[in-house]
Design goal:
This protein is mainly beta. The chain has one domain: L,D-transpeptidase catalytic domain-like. It is built from 1 helix and 14 strands, in the order E-E-E-E-E-E-E-E-E-E-E-E-E-H-E. The protein has one helix at residues 154-163, and strands spanning 6-10, 17-22, 25-30, 36-37, 47-48, 50-59, 73-75, 80-83, 94-96, 103-105, 115-119, 135-138, 150-152, 169-172. The strands form 3 sheets. Strands 1, 2, 3, 6, 7, 11, 12, 13 and 14 form a 9-stranded mixed sheet that branches. Strands 9-8-10 form a 3-stranded antiparallel sheet, with no helix packed on it. Strands 4-5 form a two-stranded parallel sheet. The longest helix has 10 residues, at 154-163.
Length: 173
C-alpha cells in the first residue's frame, strides 16, 4: 500500500461528514449522502471505502488559479464532461460535451468543480456500474452530502494541493 499520506475518517458511524487529514492538517469534509461503502455502485450516493492514488487536478481557470501542486494540472473547459453511463465505452472517463451517453458536466455554475482532484477509483480495471466521477472537490455550503465524492472548503483544497506529496494516496475508511 505504501506510505499513507491523506486519509478520511467519518465523524461517526452514521455521519455524512468526516475529517480529511494530511500530516498535521485536519479539515472538515462532506461525504456521500449514503455514507461510506465497500460495495460502491453507480448512483448509490456512497463514497467508496478503500485506498486510491490521487492522479490529477482539474481547475476552472476563471474561478481558481493554477497553484503549486505535485499533481499534473489541467484546466476545465466548458465542453468537458465525465461519462457516467455504465454501458458506454467511455464509462468513468473524461469526455467532450455534448456526448451521446450520459455525462456529468465539469464546468458547473455552482462552483463545486472549480477545482477537482481525480483519484484512480474504478479506472484500471474499469468495472461497469461500480461508480464514476469519484473526486475530491469543493464542498457545498454547510458541508451538505455529496453524490459519492469527498468535498472540502475551497480554501482548504488549495492548501491541501500545495502540501500534497507526489504519489499521494487517499485512504477512505
Amino acid at each position: 500500500m505504501g506510505k499513507v499520506t491523506l486519509s478520511v475518517r467519518r465523524l461517526s458511524a452514521s455521519s455524512r461528514r468526516g475529517i480529511l487529514e494530511l500530516g498535521q492538517f485536519r479539515w472538515l469534509c462532506a461525504l456521500g449522502r449514503s455514507g461510506i461503502s465497500a460495495r460502491k455502485r453507480e448512483g448509490d450516493g456512497a463514497t467508496p471505502r478503500g485506498t486510491y492514488r490521487v492522479i490529477r487536478a482539474y481547475y476552472r481557470p476563471d474561478k481558481f488559479f493554477r497553484t503549486r501542486c505535485s499533481l499534473p494540472q489541467q484546466p476545465i473547459r466548458p465542453h468537458d464532461g465525465w461519462c457516467d453511463a455504465p454501458t458506454d465505452r467511455n464509462y468513468n472517463r473524461q469526455v467532450r460535451l455534448p456526448y451521446s451517453a450520459s455525462a456529468e458536466r465539469l464546468w458547473r455554475a455552482d462552483g463545486l468543480y472549480d477545482v477537482v482532484l481525480a483519484m484512480d477509483y474504478n479506472l484500471s480495471p474499469r468495472l461497469r456500474g461500480r461508480g464514476s466521477a469519484i473526486f475530491l472537490h469543493v464542498a457545498k455550503a454547510g458541508y451538505e452530502p455529496t453524490e459519492g465524492c469527498v468535498a472540502v472548503a475551497k480554501r482548504d483544497l488549495r492548501l491541501l494541493m500545495s502540501r500534497l506529496p507526489k504519489g499521494a494516496k487517499l485512504v477512505i475508511r
